[in-house]
Amino acid sequence: MKKWVRKHKGLLIGFMIASVVVSFITAIQLHVLLDNVADLQYYVQTGEVTASMYQYSIICFVNLIVAIIWIVLLFLLIWKVIFPNVTTVKNAFFLGELAFLIKMPASIRKELRRKNEQ
């Protein structure tokens, strides 16, 4: 386990930093939302966006981008845990058998041509 952590130290650090950033931006987003409840009610009733709601929408957009980065890092981390090396990926998805099946029509065609030539 220690060897795996040392090997994927950069991924783990990136995931931790992304987690902290997502949490921090979400806290800011909730604070801005709760400060602008009246503007939000005005937007719901009239459909007009006030200047303070623009700030909230920008924070939501930034949070969305950082959350997507966090999700990608989470998937990479899970992938690295489930499949620690290339051979386990090849064995799990039967890549050797798939390559054999892909080459099979060409090899059958080659054998048939050889038999027809004889």
Summarize the structure in words.
The chain crosses the membrane at residues 12-34, 54-79. Keywords: Membrane, Transmembrane, Transmembrane helix. The chain is an all-alpha fold and 118 residues long. It has two domains: 2-82; 86-118. It contains six helices and no strands. The chain has helices at 2-7, 9-35, 37-46, 51-82, 86-92, 95-117. α2 runs antiparallel to α4 (51-82). The longest helix is centred in the middle third of the chain and has 32 residues, at 51-82. The radius of gyration is 27 Å and the shape is elongated. The termini are far apart. The mean pLDDT is 89.
Concise structural overview:
With 118 residues, the chain is mainly alpha-helical. It has helices at residues 2-7, 9-35, 37-46, 51-82, 86-92, 95-117.
List keywords for this structure.
single chain, 118 residues, mainly alpha, 2 domains, 6 helices, 89% helix, 0% strand, elongated
